[in-house]
Amino acid sequence: MNKTIDFIKRKTVMLCMAVAVMGGLASCEEHTDEYDGSLKVGNILLADNSIVSPQGYDSKNQTAVGVIFYASRDTALVVSMHELGSYAYADSLGTVGSVNSDSRTLCGAENTAALLVSEIPTPAAEAVADFRSPMASWALPSAGELRALAAMLPVVAHSMEIIGGEPFADGQYISSTQDGSTSESEQMYYLSVAMPSGFVTSTIKTTPGRVRPVLRLR
User: Fold this and answer.
1) Is residue 67 a contact partner of residue 212, using CB atoms and an 8 Å limit?
2) Phi and psi at residue 36, in whole multiples of 5°?
3) How many CA atoms lie within 13 A of 197 on its CB side?
4) How far apart are CA 213 and CA 113, in angstroms?
5) Does the structure show a pLDDT above 80 at 17?
6) Taking a C-beta distance cutoff of 8 angstroms, is the pair 209, 189 a contact?
7) How does residue 94 score in pLDDT terms, banded at 50, 70 and 90?
8) What is the pTM assigned to this prediction?
């Protein structure tokens, strides 16, 4: 009988120790999440170029500029807190050289650079170039980047709400990608991407779409 009681006591002590250890681990994990400065979807880019988790964001002492929506190895893409309004891809129809027409490629920065030197006025790209922010090098996102954003929109929208960013509208966002299906379509259409579905549509270049800048890190 005494052996049975001793056995129960030992099991009870071991169980209590296990609970205490697990509680400590949970506490450590919460502490780690709070100070997670990694390139992780949902984490927040600050004006001093540092990264902070939503749990660790301090609105009184920190200035947010955007939220990470894509991360791979040492590269990440950030979407701005701000929408810039509605702009046309171009003032007139015509192919813009050096613009990648692949709807899956993450090439907003390269496409935006090509649009800005085009002889055809490109209001959406120009609006991004004129965007005032503590960070430089914002771009008009490619179709691939907008699709990546749509795929992670619930996570990004949660962080965006925490930092007081503008919510994403339901509807078409303008990309920097031309429709490269044919030479004719490349002259006439750009690719717009719907939020939150990520559905891609060919849209006449003079038709305005919502503009939300993105930024490539590292």
Assistant:
1) no
2) -75, 110
3) 9
4) 13
5) no
6) no
7) very high
8) 0.84
